[in-house]
Amino acid sequence: MQRRNILVVGAGPVGSVAALACARFGHRVTLLEAQERIDDSPRASTTQPPTLEILAELGLIDEYIAQGLVARTFQFWDRPTRRLIAEFDFSRLRGETAYPMVVQTEQHKLANMAIGRLRDMADAEVILGSRVTGVSQDSKQVKIETENGELLADYVIAADGGRSTLRKGLDIEFEGYTWPERFLVITTKFDFQAELGCCLRTYMADPDEWTNLFKVAGDDLKGRWRAVFNTRPDETDEEALSDDSVRARLARCYAQNADWLHLNLYSVHQRVAKQFRKGRVFLCGDAAHVNNPIGGLGLNCGIHEAWDLANLLGGDESKLDAYERRRRPLNIKYVQEQTVANKKQLEERDPAQREKRFEELRRTAEDPARHKSFLMRASLLESARDAIRA
User: Which of 11, 178, 247, 285 could disulfide-link 302, Cβ–Cβ 3.0 to 4.6 Å?
Assistant: First the structure.
């Protein structure tokens, strides 16, 4: 294995995992982050089985599980009638993975865990509060310009988010589209499980306004729920975030008179970078692709990319093209297509089609072989297997 000087831009969960993986493989690593501290606002938290396998390889799994909640099932409901349609159980994946479950741990916890490990490593450096302003490269190295000076590296991993400065600086097209509606995330201590009898990951279909419910541990480990809603395309920020609107949305999800801790309103995109590699710079995570969060796939795919790339960077340079050759098609097949299908399933308006979709889910859940096959794809285990074969 060749020891290289790796610069990772972006200290979110994907960049932090990429940096830790590269450092554990013996490379000299610098992790660079524009912000002074890791963003702890409510964002991704769902961690699928193959991602848990990676975290175990990195020595993070015990702490990661302790900081989150284990979710062994997930459910689909019809929200208007308060009907449970189908339940899927990760225990069907025993024998396929050492972790037949999902763990709900907030992404900032993962980033901080990885950074903590990096700070204890002799050949790793973490630099916070230094924004990238430019990038250039030749056949031997990459030069990253920051507000505080220049950094040189053999290779750069761009994990600097959906608005990636590096992707834009390299003039890589971000192909795709933006959904007309936005998503509103309401964080509350209201106990949906006690009220509805739902599980910790619950998808509620509604032709007018669907809801996804997820429980996370919170920094205090006392638990809180995130309720994700679609907004109307013409709904303004002021309307969506008003107390009356938030309270009405919670009430329509059977949370009467509930209070909330945090609101997050954001635009939703389905986009994939035309290239995942340009010379000595590789795109990872949201810098390479963004998608709607229904199904909990985007962050997981980014971590898989980070792990894959860290493994490749220690080998022969001639093999580095394998990263883009397999990771871009895998994202399109297992993340872009699946998250679009998930969204359409929740918002189906035609009554006959809605019932047809519900019946298909029921039959899938009731048939052992189809149940397992469904979970292999939904958990990204099938994607992980394809990556090995690619």
Answer: 285
Q: What's the pLDDT tens digit per position in 198-254?
A: 999 999 999 999 999 999 999 999 999 999 999 999 999 999 999 999 999 999 999
Question: 331: closest CA among 359, 357, 299, 361?
Answer: 299
Domain assignment present for residue 111? The answer is yes
Please report whether residue 143 resides in a domain. Answer: yes
- Between the alpha carbon of residue 342 and those of residues 75, 132, 165, 215, 295, the distances in Å are 13, 36, 30, 19, 7
The model's pTM is 0.97
Given a contact cutoff of 8 angstroms between Cβ atoms, the answer to whether 130 and 277 are in contact is no
Q: How many domains does the chain have?
A: 1
**Spatial contact of 32 and 7, defined as CB atoms under 8 Å apart:** yes
Instruction: Tell whether 98 is covered by a domain.
Output: no
Q: Which of 269, 298, 284, 268 is nearest to 10 (CA)?
A: 284
Contact 299, 18 (CB under 8 A): no
> Distance (Å, rounded) from C-alpha 199 to C-alpha 102?
12
Q: What is the pLDDT of residues 84-142, one digit of tens each?
A: 999 999 999 999 999 999 999 999 999 999 999 999 999 999 999 999 999 999 999 99
Q: Is residue 368 in a domain?
A: no
